[in-house]
Amino acid sequence: MRDVAIVGVGMTPFGELWESSLRDLFVDAASLALRDAGADHLDAIYVGNMAGGQLVGQEHLGPLMADQLGMRGVPSTRVESACASGGAALRAAFFEVASGASDLVLASGVEKMNDGADVTGVLATAADQEAEVYHGITFPGLYAMIARAHMAAHGTTLEDLAAVSVKNHRHGALNPKAQFKQEVTAEQVMASSMVADPLRLLHCSPVSDGAAAVLLCPLDRAAEFCDKPVKIRASGMATSAMALADRHDPAFLDAVHLAGNRAFDMGKVGPRDIDVAEVHDCFAIAELCVLEALCFTERGLAGEATRAGETTLGGRIPINTSGGLKSKGHPVGATGVAQVIEIVEQLRGEAGARQVKDAVVGLTQNMGGSGASAVVHIFERV
Amino acid sequence: MAGIVGYGAFVPRNRITSEEIARQWGKDPATIRRGLMLEEKSVPGLDEDTITISVEAGRAALARAGIDPQLVGALYIGSESHPYAVKPSGTVVAEALGIGPSVHVADFEFACKAGTEAMFVALSVVESGRAKFAMGIGADTSQGAPNDALEFSASAGGAAYLFGQDHLLVDVVDTYSFTSDTPDFWRREGEFYPRHGGRFTGEPAYFKHVTSATRAILDRTGFKPGDFRYVVFHMPNGKFPLAAGKQMGFKPEQLETGWVVNTMGNTYSGSSPTGLAAILDVADPDDLILITSFGSGAGSDSFVLRATALLPERRGRAPTVRSMLDGRRTYLTYGEYAKYREKILVND
Prior knowledge:
- The complex is a heterodimer of chains A (382) and B (348).
- Chain A has helices spanning 22-37, 52-56, 61-68, 85-98, 119-124, 139-154, 158-172, 186-191, 254-267, 284-293, 302-307, 324-328, 332-348, and strands at residues 4-11, 44-48, 76-79, 105-112, 194-196, 199-200, 209-218, 230-239, 276-278, 361-368, 373-381.
- Chain A has 382 residues and is of the alpha/beta class.
- Chain A is globular.
- The two termini of chain A are 18 Å apart.
- Helices cover 35% and strands 24% of the residues of chain B.
- Chain B has 13 helices and 14 strands.
- The longest helix of chain B is centred in the middle third of the chain and has 20 residues, at 202-221.
- Chain B has 348 residues and is of the alpha/beta class.
- At the A-B interface, loops of A face loops of B.
């Protein structure tokens, strides 16, 4: 396989973007990525999108987006893995370039969630309909059960959960693209409206519109497009039981663990080598579980590590310097690609006030459902 | 110069608290109170509707004007809860007030801004010289579906404004309307309750129209936010008008007098007109007043008004808004509320 680099990035702001449709969002992000690299053509496009059909009645995003971008004729495919669609799109693009089949491939993600749909109901289609959703549960409920299981197994506290939100909002306040650019206090988090006990409003990522796109090419051609290419060192993916009740331990995200191990093996690095990571904090408890599944902390100690500031900017391993899904926003199909853009900017040294000093190796972790699909990528400054 | 020669408001006596509604649906009352800034709302009695509210408010307006109802040449009622789908509310109200039959009457609908729309047209009729006096009323017994966020706000009440050329209580300095096709909230023919676009009703609908209309009328008149003693914006909940005011540089003390929503609820077409009535109940001569309504669909009407020396002399002729909000009230249980709002369906 060839080495692959990211040579261009582009994303829209995340938020309630009432003036932009699904296609507008994609075109904005994709155009920015092409301009960033100075590229004028593409060999292929992957569009990560979870629920265009349900949210805005639009499927068949491959040709639609290629056409809207002015790339009619280019192979273009929509990739879906629920909230991990963006990460899965990057993985498909990565292998297409690595295999030698294509040189210039756009990996993108897009979601238009604020357009009148019943978003909670739509998102719930990423859980197991027969085992879970028909019985009435939605994702806040599933993650609340994960939180309860984690509390019971490891003594994780409400303060631990609040610390995740406080930290991510502190980071997001420094990100001009973030949906919520303001800090919150632990007291505000713990007094916010109850959503699904013990998860409160400020433990939950918002409903967002947005798109993100990155341009991939073989590493040996990267200099044609970019001064600071970022190498994709590894890609790992794994799946687990769709239904939470079918997992061996509901407080442990085994697909994330497996995807992480596959990426670490492929990249020949370990958790200790990672300087900065973007992880899938759709709910505060998810970030804690992911830190443990990726072995950034020991099992059961992620809450303590977060409260001790180990995962904050300037800490041992800064997590979600973009603000994470919580503060930056979570347009589900776009999230996995937006995570990559944050890491690319960190490794280019262009993250401004959010810059992690001397970051060389970064990681993204994106997951679908309650963790039934997980994608992990590792990146390296070259 | 045309202006307001009489005004009046009416708020029914029944109330239900946010806490009682929250309890019914297993919601957290503290969250509602904090999130929507609503303590309680008015509820129409079984024999109260847009027509009876309009008659009460119209009577008060005529009393403050002290004119012969026969001189009123136009009557317009804005509401989204006219009791009949076909048959005007205005004819009943005109008859009850002793207006007509030599009168032009129409019912208006423009979601929550039908009241200021009626006021705008009544003012125009007087300005054009087609009628000596014209009345514009905004009144509603608003609908909110059970267990919808609207149920905490949708209430009952209204206000009437009588326009004329002389003996003005309030000068109308300028008006401005801002309208666009923005489908944020609607109720189709035959449906019991309105539907809405959730958060779409906020930024692109309420805030865009309220701030655009307000900024435009400030531009047209050359006034700055600080020039106004009192300001009232449409009140779909407690939070929106305060946030809109803050965005545009108005201070809480300019807004608080007309901000009656926390104990009245959202009287839809009657909302900002009733807030204005509460302001006229206390305004001093020469006070500059701004009102901006909002109606989903969507549009906003702005009026810049100036109180005259006659206003304090005349306002004692009818009850104040505060006397109705703070006076004798009857608190309903959710069950009584469901009965009064005819949410309990029975066979004929």
